[in-house]
Amino acid sequence: MISFDRLRALAAVSAHGSIARAAEALHITPSGLSQQLAKLEREAGHRLLEPRGRSVRITHAGRVLAAHADRMLSELASTEADLRDLHDEVLGPLRIGGVGSAVRTLLPEALESLAAAHPRLRPTVADGEAVDLVPRLLDGQLDLLLIESWANRPLFVPEGVTLRTVVSEEVWVALSVRHPLNGRGTIDLTELKGTAWASCPPGTEPHEALVQAARAQGVEPDVRYTLTDHITQLALVEKNLTAALMPAMSHHLAPHGVHFARLRPALRRDIKAAWTTSAETPPVRACVALLGGGEEY
């Protein structure tokens, strides 16, 4: 294997033009530098230097290897600079996972501000549900989550995860304007007995919150459409095929043929930022600060 220190020695000879000047720059003796270069030739399997009067000249193979060494040294210098800056600067990767409504509504403006303030930050985003995203956070695959917690089914996270509420909002029921209860300002879930429902898949926070809210009123919900996307749910609601529980931040997605009514008893949902407490990096702190906290919808 080629030694990195010996590559550094070759790059120095290439840059300074002689063994003597390269040795001075590296703070070693010329004989010590010559020994490193001789070992590098054996490692590389090529002649790297040839005599030129009282000095040496770099061969073609030496120039090729020196060019690679220069790139490696430059990358190493950049890496070392980034590591020195990690304690204070917002840079490097920031892997975000979030539920669709939060990603769509909250993240674009925050990411725009992050990009302007911290051009060395490299955010990536994946959408999903808490049941899938939390394990990825714990495994170190994600750095920050935007996940939901419903008032009647509070989100459970393991020890070592920090939660901060970013948005707290009321949840409404979405019905078609052709539904018999259209126009009502408040609706009890018992009045929707026999109505088909659209919700996220079983095991997700929205699905389980719907089931628990209905069962608390003595109703077993008929969930016929399992769809993670609110836009698709609302498209089916407009056609009077289903009802759906819809957080306030997704109301603007509704087509004209959808009516929203408050629930009795009322139901709320929080969007929470979540991150591993031991991995609270400057990028995580910067993003959470831009997302704010406690906003009402």
TrEMBL record:
InterPro entries: LysR_HTH_N, LysR_subst-bd, WH-like_DNA-bd_sf, WH_DNA-bd_sf. SUPFAM superfamilies: Periplasmic binding protein-like II, Winged helix' DNA-binding domain. Keywords: DNA-binding, Transcription, Transcription regulation. Residues 2-59 form the HTH lysR-type domain. One of its GO terms (molecular function) is DNA binding. One of its GO terms (cellular component) is protein-DNA complex. The keyword Nucleotidyltransferase does not apply. It comes from the Bacteria. Pfam families: HTH_1, LysR_substrate. The keyword DNA-binding applies. PANTHER family: LYSR SUBSTRATE-BINDING (PTHR30346:SF29), TRANSCRIPTIONAL DUAL REGULATOR HCAR-RELATED (PTHR30346). Belongs to the LysR transcriptional regulatory family. This is LysR family transcriptional regulator. It comes from Streptomyces tsukubensis.
